[in-house]
Design a protein that fits this description.
The complex is a heterodimer. Chain A is α+β, with helices and mostly antiparallel strands. Chain A has 17 helices and 27 strands. In chain A, the strands form 9 sheets. Chain A has a 5-stranded mixed β-sheet with strand order 22-21-23-19-24. In chain A, strands 4-16-14-13 form a 4-stranded mixed β-sheet. Chain A has a 4-stranded antiparallel β-sheet with strand order 7-8-12-11, covered by helices on one side. In chain A, strand 1 and strand 2 form a beta hairpin. The chains are: A alpha+beta, B mainly alpha. Chains A and B meet through strand 16, helix 6, helix 13, helix 14 and helix 17 of A and helix 2, helix 3, helix 5, helix 7 and helix 8 of B.
């Protein structure tokens, strides 16, 4: 047995050390050390695009819901985004057997649900039972199976849980961190047994029914307006002076309908944190002092934008026409052709003219923001039209009739359209820059903007398209991208749902993913991911463009607030954040409306009285 | 009167059946469906997409969905389920409809209270400087698009800090007294309501001015003056009373203006009303929510017109409803 000792600290600022290896005394709350000592009170207002759709931590996956839920429900393991490490939450320590098949989790004895009920192993067992239930649709299920088989969960005693795996499963801790938020058995068992679980914890749940172990609990939800969370007095952490955490009284998620409204809300002082689009950086930088906020440069974004060609070898089941014309398929499946296209992505021009310098070039499927998972040594196909031309000449895609467009050896003109979604200016402009350099080397590319839904139908249903320029929102967790990398995945964009790998290297990637899942140590996992990225880089199934940098503005009045690139960017340590000083309340202006109504009414009454009979 | 109202309600039934029918058809004609966005999310398993699609009939043709929906709506008053919102449609509509209703009510209040006195003023003081100022305001109100006015209002709120930049209530709302709560909502409503009332004020003002000018030239006013009534009594008791009737007809139409205007105003000014919900639902192709919202719009329009006709009958003794 390897006993694991968890020492956590966050860079230079803060070190909070759990008593190393020594379980906490029963019912004694945990002391967090190394943070700035704050004072209780105050609130933070975070903008949110859209309402939460549900408070159910197991079935929700849209960020407008999970950003809220993350503060109410917690899992056995959480993630420290600054150290990029897994940290204990409801499980104080855990250990595994030598063969990595039996994992024992020691739960914290001091944790209580926010209604005062103690948290026990039964809650953990109940949570897994619900996740594994076939009738309950939830995204967690897939991450908690190995080779299609479920894990076995058993209770050792009230505060110890054992997980037995049927096969080696490398990313177990990560899977538990991502997908398992523990839910209260005492509140939900009845609903579950009566088959109402999917509907329970919906958006209309009364606050007292929403029982979690997180630092905050629901106070009020107003659809289209805001969600107000208030502090959970039973939270299990305290600071060095013995003050119970969290410091803040309230966390508010203010609903804003769109990005422009979000800008205005922050500028008007309604919200306390704000993600700034790269093109608007200067507008906010100029107001840093007067608005009493600081802009944090969080680095390069996790998501990426890329161009790919339709390499689907299948045929339409109704018409039996191939999805892609055979001679076109020959172009798209030719690695030299794709590499030539990659050489035509003028990343510098995109960064300078569209992002005003606030972006970084990307050459592979993972963003450098992924830290150790990112492989910096993959082949880079820099912008180089000469290299592109010689690659095309080598495979005899030459302009034979002198019209400026190359033909393949069979004499077909190389002409294709690139679709992208309408309304996203950044993507449209990127497309235009790419189109121009492709034309320069003699490839007749035409950018076509279509509605988002048309685009989705084309790339996911009808497969009736030639090339597509699109982005994916990234995640910090390599586990969540498996659907993209597996050749059988639905979001394996250039050729989804393959029955068997179409090319040798895709087969290699499939095998590497299996290796990753069976590699118990994280260093080994990282190595596998570096190899996957190398294969991607060498084969260029897509041409990656650039990733914007992320800027986040936060008001200066908060202490212990350290935003990170990983969601939730601001509230990952919500219990430690505090308000330094309360700024003066702005002058009350509500009477203005009253005066207006009074003046209008008085004028009208005066008028009507004046005209009435006396 | 009762039979008249009953007849009008019966006449409304085909409209209320056709509005959802065409909405279903139009949404079907637009490419894609409500769960398309999920297909691009690598974190959503195939199984989830399939189950949701079966559960809400997304794999069936649109007319079958229409009839299933209609059956549910008529027999169980069930307006359907919004997949993106993970909620029944009825409570969503309920919350938002109320918000739009108070906004429209306040806007109507402002329209009448501002437009009628100004209309009377410009008619009685025709061609004076005050008439010209009123006319200028009216033409500005008519010619500035709602969207632009909403942006101006937002800029005004932001630059002065006198008004909130959106929303319906402030965060402290719960801790306020009853009076404070009313004031808080009023404060948030003022700018959106003024924007929404903008074109209405202009229309009513011009209409009032025109009508009143017609009446002021009528023979019966000369009679009234000859009887020795003061000018105030002449205008107030006789002319205004007759001039106001066409405005009541306009009131029926103004409901449709308020509803369509609210779509823009609510979206620009972050107001949690029905209009914004429709826009969001259209973007996500959330058909049951769109259908229910448009149906509510149709109901309001029909009721508004009916109310206008009844009010007209009450205010003008010459009109008999049969």
């Amino acid at each position: 047995m390897i006993h694991r000792i968890f020492v956590l600290f966050t860079l230079t600022l803060s070190i909070f050390i759990l008593p190393a290896g020594v379980p906490a005394q029963e019912n004694e709350i945990q002391t967090v050390t190394g943070i700035e000592i704050g004072k209780p009170g105050g609130r933070i207002v975070i903008p949110s695009l859209g309402d939460p759709k549900s408070f159910n931590p197991l079935t929700s996956n849209e960020t407008s819901s999970t950003d809220v839920i993350d503060n109410i429900f917690k899992g056995l393991i959480e993630y420290d985004p600054i150290r990029q490490e897994l940290v204990p939450e409801l499980a104080e320590t855990w250990e595994h057997s030598d063969d990595f098949l039996t994992w024992t989790f020691h739960l914290r004895k001091e944790v209580k649900w926010n209604d005062g009920t103690p948290f026990t192993a039964d809650d953990v067992l109940f949570t897994f039972e619900v996740i594994y239930d076939d009738d309950i649709i939830n995204p967690a299920k897939d991450f908690l199976k190995v080779q299609g088989e479920k894990f076995e969960i058993s209770k050792v005693d009230d505060h110890t849980v054992q997980i037995t795996l049927p096969h080696l499963y490398g990313p177990l801790e990560r899977a538990i961190m991502t997908s398992v938020d523990i839910i209260p058995k005492h509140k939900l068992q009845n609903a579950y047994e009566e088959g109402r679980f999917a509907e329970s914890l919906g958006i209309d749940t009364p606050p007292e029914e929403l029982v979690g172990t997180g630092p905050f609990k629901l106070k009020q939800y107003l659809s289209g307006e805001r969600v107000i969370l208030e502090r959970n007095p039973n939270y299990w952490k305290q600071d060095e002076q013995g003050q119970r955490l969290p410091y803040l009284n309230e966390v508010v998620f203010e609903n804003v309908p769109d990005l422009d409204a979000m800008d205005v809300a922050f500028e008007a002082g309604k919200t306390d944190a704000h993600g700034i689009q790269p093109s608007k950086y200067k507008r906010f930088k100029d107001k840093e002092e007067s608005g009493n906020f600081t802009i944090h440069d969080l680095g390069i974004a996790l998501g990426d934008a890329h161009l790919w060609f339709n390499q689907n070898t299948g045929s339409n089941p109704d018409t039996e026409e191939p999805y892609v014309k055979p001679h076109e398929l020959k172009w798209y499946t030719n690695p030299a052709f794709r590499k030539a296209v990659s050489h035509c992505i003028n990343r510098d021009a995109i960064i300078k003219s569209i992002y005003r310098g606030r972006a970084e070039p990307i050459y592979g499927p993972l963003s450098p923001a992924m830290g150790k998972w990112y492989n910096p040594d993959i082949p880079k196909f820099e912008f180089d039209t000469e290299a592109a031309k010689s690659l095309l000449n080598e495979i005899e895609y030459i302009d034979r009739d002198g019209d400026g467009v190359r033909e393949d050896p069979e004499g077909n003109k190389i002409s294709f359209s690139i679709i992208t979604n309408r309304g996203n200016n950044i993507r449209e402009d990127t497309g235009l820059i790419i189109e121009q350099s492709l034309k320069e080397v003699g490839l007749d590319a035409n950018l076509q903007t279509v509605d988002f839904n048309t685009l989705v139908t084309a790339i996911a249903d009808s497969f009736d398209y030639q090339a597509c320029l699109l982005g994916l929102t990234g995640s910090d967790n390599p586990l969540s991208g498996l659907n993209v990398y597996r050749s059988s995945g639905r979001t394996h964009q250039w050729f989804p749902n393959q029955e068997s790998p179409a090319t040798e290297w895709e087969g290699q990637v499939d095998q590497l993913i299996e290796d990753f899942l069976a590699t118990p140590d994280e260093e080994g996992q990282v190595e596998v991911w570096h190899e996957i990225q190398r294969l991607y880089g060498e084969n260029q199934p897509m041409a990656w463009t650039v990733n914007p940098k992320i800027y986040l503005a936060v008001r200066n009045k908060f202490g212990n607030l350290r935003p990170t690139i990983i969601r939730p960017r601001v509230l990952w340590n919500a219990e430690e954040i505090f308000v330094k000083e309360t700024p003066e309340a702005p002058a009350e202006t509500k009477s203005l409306s009253l005066i207006l109504v009074a003046v209008v009414a008085a004028a009208a009454i005066f008028f009507f009285l004046g005209t009435r009979k006396r | 009167m009762k039979t008249y109202i009953l007849r009008r309600i019966l006449q409304a039934i085909p409209i209320l059946l056709l509005v959802p029918f065409f909405t279903f058809l139009l949404i079907e004609l637009a490419p894609g469906n409500v769960i398309d966005a999920w297909k691009l999310d690598p974190q959503i398993p195939d199984e989830v997409i399939q189950k949701v699609s079966e559960k809400y009939g997304l794999d069936q043709p649109w007319y079958l969905r229409y009839f299933t929906w209609l059956k549910g709506a008529v027999t169980e008053l069930d307006l359907g389920y919004s997949v993106p919102n993970k909620r029944d449609v009825a409570p969503i509509i309920g919350e938002r409809l109320f918000n739009t209703f108070i906004l429209a009510l306040y806007a109507t209040f402002l329209e009448w209270m501002i437009a009628i006195p100004l209309g009377i003023l410009s008619a009685t003081k025709q061609y004076t400087i005050s008439d010209k100022i009123c006319s200028m305001i009216a033409f500005l109100g008519l010619s500035i698009p709602n969207v632009f006015l909403a942006l101006l209002a937002l800029l005004f709120a932001y630059a002065t800090g006198w008004f909130p930049v959106g929303g319906l209530r402030s965060i402290d709302y719960e801790s306020l007294s009853a009076w404070g709560k009313t004031l808080d909502i009023l404060h948030h409503l003022t700018l959106p309501a003024l924007v929404l009332a903008g074109s209405g004020i202009a229309t009513y003002m011009r209409q009032m001015r025109g009508n009143l000018l017609d009446q002021l030239r009528a023979d019966y006013l000369t009679t009234a003056r000859a009887k020795g009534l003061t000018e105030t009594e002449v205008v107030g008791k006789h002319a205004v009373r007759n001039a106001i009737n066409p405005l009541i007809t306009l009131f029926g139409f103004s409901i449709s203006n308020l509803l369509s205007g609210s779509v823009l105003v609510e979206t620009v000014m972050s107001y949690p009303g029905l209009g914004r919900t429709v826009v969001e639902a259209l973007f996500t192709q959330d058909e049951y929510l769109v259908v229910a919202a448009l149906l509510m719009g149709a109901v309001l329009l029909i009721l508004g017109n009916l109310l206008a006709d009844i009010l007209l009958a009450l205010s003008d003794p010459r009109i008999r409803l049969q």
